[in-house]
Automatic annotation (TrEMBL):
The keyword Iron applies. Fe cation binds at H76, H78, H120, E122. It comes from the Bacteria. Keywords: Iron, Metal-binding. Residues 66-142 form the Pirin N-terminal domain. Residues 210-322 form the Pirin C-terminal domain. Its cofactor is Fe cation. This is Pirin, N-terminal:Pirin, C-terminal. The lineage of its organism: Bacteria, Bacillati, Actinomycetota, Nitriliruptoria, Euzebyales. Binds 1 Fe cation per subunit.
Length: 354
């Protein structure tokens, strides 16, 4: 722990899995520079030397994760929490035990409440065979209160064009670009609603998820949180750096900050290096009111007691959480570059590719 300033309570180093604070369980930043795709939508590259089925090596700038042909995460169960997948580049193919499916890409967010139990696959199809398939996303796990651990599973698609994006100018006219995945920054411009039984759907949860793209030297004052008990964590990723109050936070570091007073965050990247989007520094902010209940996690299940975990495994072994309706464990949705969602109730959405 570093000595706090009046704004920063604690600094942490970011590893492969980022430390989070209640109500969040963890955050992973996947950033893979996949090669061209082959006819099976997998990497057009040899897989020799990789631990297929458990490849988190980052070798040559990318991993297969649990995939064997297409990178990603073949069918696996969840109970008792929620997953939020925020795509930055590339595509994800979702398939689940409810019969629902989706393909989503740059700027889209999938929010899935696992509740009583769902099995899903998350695959990264390499749709381009003439260029690299850069794939970047955040996957964020957020807890559910004990009273909602066993709600009906549900997933929502928050499409890029629906998500609020603001260009906020500081006193010198320098822009800070803010994407609002959850909550709001500008009054009257709230993010699309999460699933109906999401913790974030509670008015007093104060869940906010923001992405900040800062230009060279720009500054923004983060507003006071909506609830006095809320906790806010600022993660700086990539090569940038910021000053929060009088504390420098480098890329690869996070900071738990006060959210009961306005706090300035200022780009402090040396040399003004820009990302592909023209940002000098990129930041993810996670904020929420703690649930304040016991957390017992074992693998893909997050409950409040060890007995609940044991029952989750017993239920999954007995029912498969409804069974797996797909022919393979790692389904993808074909070579066409298009985004869509087919929900468990039969409702469909179709969008152009990105």
């Amino acid at each position: 722990m570093h000595t706090p300033s009046d704004a920063v309570i604690q600094k942490v180093e970011l590893g492969q899995v980022w430390q989070t604070v209640d109500p969040f369980l963890f955050c992973v930043h996947h950033d893979d520079d996949y090669p061209e795709g082959d006819e099976e939508l997998g990497p057009c590259a040899p897989l020799v030397g990789r631990n297929i089925g458990m490849d988190f090596s980052g070798r040559d700038g990318w991993s297969m994760y649990h995939g064997s042909l297409v990178p990603g995460f073949p069918q696996h169960p969840h109970r008792g929490f929620e997953t939020i997948s925020f795509m930055r580049r590339g595509y994800m193919d979702h398939s689940d035990s409810l019969g629902a499916a989706a393909r989503f890409g740059r700027g889209d967010v999938q929010w899935m409440t696992a509740g009583s139990g769902v099995v899903h696959a998350e695959m990264f199809p390499l749709l381009r065979n003439d260029q690299h398939n850069e794939t970047e996303l955040f996957q964020i796990w957020i807890n559910l209160p004990a009273s909602d651990k066993m709600v009906e599973p549900h997933f929502s698609m928050l499409w890029d064009h629906e998500i609020p994006k603001h260009t906020l100018l500081d006193e010198a006219g320098r822009p800070v670009h803010v994407t609002v995945v959850a909550g709001q920054v500008v009054e009257g411009h709230r993010a699309p609603a999460p699933p109906p039984h999401s913790y974030a759907s509670r008015a007093d949860s104060d869940v906010n998820i923001w992405h900040l793209g800062m230009s060279e030297g720009s500054s923004w004052t983060m507003p006071v949180a909506g609830h006095p008990d809320s906790v806010r964590v600022v993660y700086v990723f990539g090569d940038g750096a910021v000053r929060i109050g009088d504390t420098e936070v480098q890329g690869g570091e996070g900071a738990v900050v006060r959210c009961d007073v306005p706090i300035s965050i200022t780009d402090d990247a040396p040399g003004g290096r820009n990302t592909d989007d023209g940002h000098t520094t990129e930041v993810l902010v996670l904020q929420g009111r703690p649930i304040g209940e016991p957390v017992v996690q074992y693998g893909p299940f997050v409950m409040t007691t060890k007995a609940d975990i044991q029952k989750a495994y017993a239920d999954y072994n007995e029912t498969g959480f409804g069974g797996w309706p797909w022919d393979v464990n790692d389904p993808n949705h074909g070579p066409d570059v298009k985004r869509f969602a087919r929900h468990a109730d039969g409702r469909t959405e179709e969008l152009a590719g990105t």
